[in-house]
Specification:
Layout (H helix, E strand, L loop, with lengths): L5 E2 L4 E5 L2 E5 L6 E4 L1 H7 L8 H11 L5 H17 L3 E2 L3 H6 L1
Antiparallel strand pairs: 1-5, 2-3, 3-4
């Protein structure tokens, strides 16, 4: 089962309810996460699985199809990865856990 990526430890986070501001000290860039992205961000611990997060989202976002939840989750994670905000887990690191 695929695990969620892990948040970078060096990012500076500041809550501005319902959003979250992330400062990347390396690039100097600031990213603003909306409420849904914050929900996903909080679960990027390298431990939770994609399936467990999809189940949590389905319980909260009643009336949204499983397919739409999965698409949104994957889209947000891909944005986190392309922005360098998370560390992707490799098969090697998944095996060691």
């Amino acid at each position: 089962m695929k695990r969620m990526p892990k948040r970078r430890d060096d990012l500076v986070a500041r809550r501005e309810d319902p959003d979250l501001l992330l400062l990347d000290p390396v690039s100097g860039q600031v990213k603003v996460l909306n409420e849904t992205a914050v929900f996903i961000w909080d679960r990027c611990d390298g431990e939770k699985t994609l399936d467990s997060v999809m189940e949590e989202m389905a319980a909260i976002y009643d009336g949204i199809s499983a397919e739409e939840i999965e698409n949104d989750l994957v889209m947000v994670i891909n944005k986190f990865v392309s922005s360098g905000l998370v560390e992707e887990l490799t098969e090697q690191s998944e095996i060691r856990q």
